[in-house]
Amino acid sequence: MGLFKKIFSKKEKQKLDDGLEKTKSSFFDKLGKAVAGKSSVDDEVLDDLEEVLISSDVGVDTTIKIINRIEARVARDKYLGADELNVILREEIAGLLKASEKENQVVQPSNEVKTPFVIIVVGVNGVGKTTTIGKLAAQFKKDGKKVVLGAADTFRAAAIDQLQIWAERVDVPIVKQQMGSDPASVAFDTVQSAVKQDADVVLIDTAGRLHNKVNLMNELTKIKRVMQKVIPNAPHDVMLVLDGSTGQNAFEQAKQFTAATEVTSLAVTKLDGTAKGGVVIGISDQFQIPVRYIGVGEAIDDLQTFDKIEFVDSFFKQ
């Protein structure tokens, strides 16, 4: 059974619709101008569509894929009306995401002796990393999981304090040390404590400063090495948190972190306050790493499990 498996409720679907409203309005406003006065999908419409997709932060590489798919479809079907473009786009984006989809569930390790499921959370300062950890802790606890937090972002006292606030709010234990402590030491203590407490899930915060590649690699490698003294196959997930409102900066951060360490899942936050939600399409396609969560609001339940079909449905709902 997947640790992250979740079924969409009507309330969650409405939140997703509302959270993507700015992105959707901006996208369809640009699309409407691109096809104004056009009766068919010709080269000029495709050029304008390419500009719309890139300016909506879908990303150049993914945009080219989408345009190529539509060009092939136009050539095959001979005539496609400009009024059909919404339907065509929806189908091609859904198909692209489905084609790039990897298994979006992380399954609990099937050991005879239960061990905690360890998630390391990485990302630069300001993307909503610690808040994402807090919301995940709340959701896991609500699902009946026993959760332990680890404050391994020892570079900033504020990061430790913020995670402490979330631990108190959610009422889950936290393992922490003083600012400046060795992050690997905190990670070791956290997984050791989680084993003793028979915990189900461990969420470990890590330093959010923008490392150079070597320092980041060394730090995360050390954290993994010491944790594996307690749980041999830890971590089970390395989750990179990205701020969707930064658009192309989110792509750049994803490039840097995936080059420095093995990222196994993504969470894209702050989509409700931006028109740059198209970045989720590009990131999902380009990095071949599951986008597991998206943030569509401030409330705890507004961190949603990413469902590609529901996302495309909300994106194109008018």
From TrEMBL:
Top enzyme category: hydrolase
Membrane-spanning parts: none
Sorted UniProt keywords: Cell membrane, Cytoplasm, GTP-binding, Hydrolase, Membrane, Nucleotide-binding, Receptor
Reactions listed under catalytic activity: GTP + H2O = GDP + phosphate + H(+)
Compartments, as annotated in UniProt: Cell membrane; Cytoplasm
SMART domains in UniProt: AAA, SRP54, SRP54_N
Gene3D superfamilies per record: P-loop containing nucleotide triphosphate hydrolases, Signal recognition particle SRP54, nucleotide-binding domain
UniProt-recorded Gene Ontology molecular function terms: GTP binding; GTPase activity; signal recognition particle binding
Gene Ontology biological process: SRP-dependent cotranslational protein targeting to membrane
Binding site for GTP: 123-130, 205-209, 269-272
Membrane topology qualifier: Peripheral membrane protein
Pfam (any one): SRP54
GO cellular component terms, A-Z: cytoplasm; plasma membrane
Database matches in CDD domains: FtsY
InterPro entries listed in its UniProt record: AAA+_ATPase (IPR003593), P-loop_NTPase (IPR027417), Signal_recog_particl_SRP54_hlx (IPR013822), SR_rcpt_FtsY (IPR004390), SRP/SRP_N (IPR036225), SRP54_GTPase_dom (IPR000897), SRP54_N_sf (IPR042101)
Annotated SRP54-type proteins GTP-binding domain residues: 290-303
Entry EC no(s): 3.6.5.4
Assembly description: Part of the signal recognition particle protein translocation system, which is composed of SRP and FtsY.
Function: Involved in targeting and insertion of nascent membrane proteins into the cytoplasmic membrane. Acts as a receptor for the complex formed by the signal recognition particle (SRP) and the ribosome-nascent chain (RNC).
Sequence similarity: Belongs to the GTP-binding SRP family. FtsY subfamily.
UniProt protein name: Signal recognition particle receptor FtsY
Lineage: Bacteria, Pseudomonadati, Bacteroidota, Flavobacteriia, Flavobacteriales
